[in-house]
Amino acid sequence: MSVRDLTVLGSASAVPTKSRNHNGYLLRWDGHGVLFDPGEGTQRQMAHAGVSANDVTWICVTHFHGDHCLGVPGIVQRIARDGVEHPVDAAFPASGRQYWERLRHATAFRDTDVIRERPVSGERMALDTGDAPFTLAARRLSHPVEAYGYRLEEPDGVTMLPAELGARGVGGPLIRRLQEEGRVTTPEGRTVTLDECSVTRPGQKVAFVMDTRLCDGVRELADGVDMLVIESTFLNQDAALATEYGHLTAAQAGEVAALSGVRHLVLTHFSERYPADDEKRFVAEASAAFAGDITLVHDLDRIPMPQRRLT
């Protein structure tokens, strides 16, 4: 059975708190698992969430600030210890390779050869996902150190229209042939094309945007996605600090979602300066601009993908 959801392993920013671990997000997608920004403590959080190293097929690091990567050593060593046999691709900014190497080989352990490095460079880059049921692209963001956001997309498919199939005498095995070949000839000798009996089914899309100021990269990543997982480190009262440190406010996250046609806005990466009572203020500021679904995450939340668009 295919599963598509986001497991939140941590949702703090630079400083973890008693209720929020450093970052960590596992996107499960039809048997694949994309682990974004494993911060300190991610390995233990995975145990609490009921997911394992065997669920991970990609590790995507946005940048090399500690709250986004200090969990890499534990994840790598757990992959080795658990004997994960499938390839695990690791995407990270190429400019930070020295930090990747330090994290990848942080301690003495029996190593694994399943990790395949996929360094990211340039303004935008498409990553080779092989036979995975999605594409994955990286886009440069605006932060004091080089940082990238990621966008996962499922290719468009088709939705068959039973009434049109019936009207044209297409049934049984002919339907599968029509889907595979694009046209069939019915027993009555009629040629029927796929376009006559189907409509395009948009593929689902997810964007993952961490530490950044507002920039073209944020908008490009967010454009038309079903789920936008985005940092909202600051409230609007601290917008100047957000810009100085290279972060977003909840209000800016809401504005991006509204302008980009996002369906579900997921807020995370909260500064420790705000008490738990301020959570409703983050939602209020985001919802002032964005009228769609908003989730303010907590550690160990599991957020399903929105229902698929039919057309």
From TrEMBL:
<keyword id="KW-0255">Endonuclease</keyword>
<feature type="binding site">
    <location>
        <position position="68"/>
    </location>
    <ligand>
        <name>Zn(2+) 2</name>
    </ligand>
</feature>
<feature type="domain" description="Metallo-beta-lactamase">
    <location>
        <begin position="21"/>
        <end position="123"/>
    </location>
</feature>
<feature type="binding site">
    <location>
        <position position="211"/>
    </location>
    <ligand>
        <name>Zn(2+) 1</name>
    </ligand>
</feature>
<feature type="binding site">
    <location>
        <position position="269"/>
    </location>
    <ligand>
        <name>Zn(2+) 2</name>
    </ligand>
</feature>
<feature type="binding site">
    <location>
        <position position="67"/>
    </location>
    <ligand>
        <name>Zn(2+) 2</name>
    </ligand>
</feature>
<dbReference type="GO" id="GO:0042781">
    <property type="term" value="F:3'-tRNA processing endoribonuclease activity"/>
</dbReference>
<comment type="similarity">
    <text>Belongs to the RNase Z family.</text>
</comment>
<dbReference type="GO" id="GO:0008270">
    <property type="term" value="F:zinc ion binding"/>
</dbReference>
<keyword id="KW-0819">tRNA processing</keyword>
<keyword id="KW-0378">Hydrolase</keyword>
<feature type="domain" description="Metallo-beta-lactamase">
    <location>
        <begin position="199"/>
        <end position="270"/>
    </location>
</feature>
<feature type="binding site">
    <location>
        <position position="63"/>
    </location>
    <ligand>
        <name>Zn(2+) 1</name>
    </ligand>
</feature>
<comment type="subunit">
    <text>Homodimer.</text>
</comment>
<dbReference type="InterPro" id="IPR013471">
    <property type="entry name" value="RNase_Z/BN"/>
</dbReference>
<protein>
    <recommendedName>
        <fullName>Ribonuclease Z</fullName>
        <ecNumber>3.1.26.11</ecNumber>
    </recommendedName>
</protein>
<dbReference type="InterPro" id="IPR001279">
    <property type="entry name" value="Metallo-B-lactamas"/>
</dbReference>
<keyword id="KW-0479">Metal-binding</keyword>
<feature type="binding site">
    <location>
        <position position="211"/>
    </location>
    <ligand>
        <name>Zn(2+) 2</name>
    </ligand>
</feature>
<comment type="function">
    <text>Zinc phosphodiesterase, which displays some tRNA 3'-processing endonuclease activity. Probably involved in tRNA maturation, by removing a 3'-trailer from precursor tRNA.</text>
</comment>
<feature type="active site" description="Proton acceptor">
    <location>
        <position position="67"/>
    </location>
</feature>
<keyword id="KW-0540">Nuclease</keyword>
<feature type="binding site">
    <location>
        <position position="143"/>
    </location>
    <ligand>
        <name>Zn(2+) 1</name>
    </ligand>
</feature>
<keyword id="KW-0862">Zinc</keyword>
<dbReference type="Pfam" id="PF12706">
    <property type="entry name" value="Lactamase_B_2"/>
</dbReference>
<dbReference type="InterPro" id="IPR036866">
    <property type="entry name" value="RibonucZ/Hydroxyglut_hydro"/>
</dbReference>
<dbReference type="Pfam" id="PF00753">
    <property type="entry name" value="Lactamase_B"/>
</dbReference>
<feature type="binding site">
    <location>
        <position position="65"/>
    </location>
    <ligand>
        <name>Zn(2+) 1</name>
    </ligand>
</feature>
